[in-house]
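Q: Convert this sequence to structure tokens.
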Amino acid sequence: MRLLNAQTKQFEEFFGITPPYAILSHTWGSNELTFKQMEQSGYTPSRKIDGCCEQALKDNLKYVWADTCCIDKSSSAELSEAINSMYAWYGASKICYAYLSDVPHRIEIEKENSAFSRSRWFTRGWTLQELIAPEKVAFYDESWKLIGRKSSSEEDEHFTKLLSRVTRINFWVLKHRRSLDHFSVAQRMSWAACRTTTRVEDVAYSLLGLFGVNMPLLYGEGPRAFVRLQEEILKNSDDESIFAWDFDSSPLLEGGRHTFMCQLFASSPADFASCMDLKACIPAGVRPSHYTLTNKGLHIEADVWTSPLDSSLVFARLNCAPHDREGSRMSLALPLLRSKDNDMLFFRPWGPPALVSS
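A:
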């Protein structure tokens, strides 16, 4: 891991055991100090990096890490390692400094629609994992004055609750009192629903750590990256809430008639915006499903039944339900259209999953 010495402003590399370090979370601007610039011209004073280093030294930390200058982005191998390791690196830091460059000093942060709650930092994809992974995150305004801290400490509880309201992320996750595994795939996706990234592939890559998966980076693949992320999640999880997203439809001509069809997987985290309270659970008397990805699509074993109104429409039960229905015999069911050419082949039509009783 390449760290920046906060005093000398020189890089030092560590393999295996890494010394204590602070880590920077921020939004990118137009004149960021990059690794290439430091290699060519040495360190150039920067309010962002200077402030980070000064605060680290005040916190008795000798090293800092910042994605702007500590990654050689000209090396695809190094970039891939960094992105796949990012969640772990933020989690291993002694403290994370969230620098909100668009928040002025001395504002009322709890005021509705405040500059704090409207900060660009809360809208970016990468900052989601940077908020959740570290146990301690200290927020600073444009002048590097402390706004508040997120931590497991009781004295930071009020500010952490404010963060939970602003981000719609579960309070206990922010406090590090509940693990991510306690929350369904759909719930975790919903935390990213209103966030964006500059490159479309980073919508997926910025979520790797939240789901504990690794995958190669293929910049240029576009939205396919988010589909690959969901495929990787399926390899390690039996959480069927991944299929319980709301979606936009696209017309498809099938069997000589017009129906609105969609793909099985969501196209972005925005499709999960309404899934904040969706829990992964297996209702009483319902068997867990088994599925594998094939070249024809998803092969799944699930409880299904045919609609009494349309023999081509079937429902496949998903082992997930809204939080207030957890422990009952209620769960969601996915509507599917049977292929005219193959009774065992189904397509997902337009329409949200239905809440049904077992």
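The longest helix spans residues 76-92.
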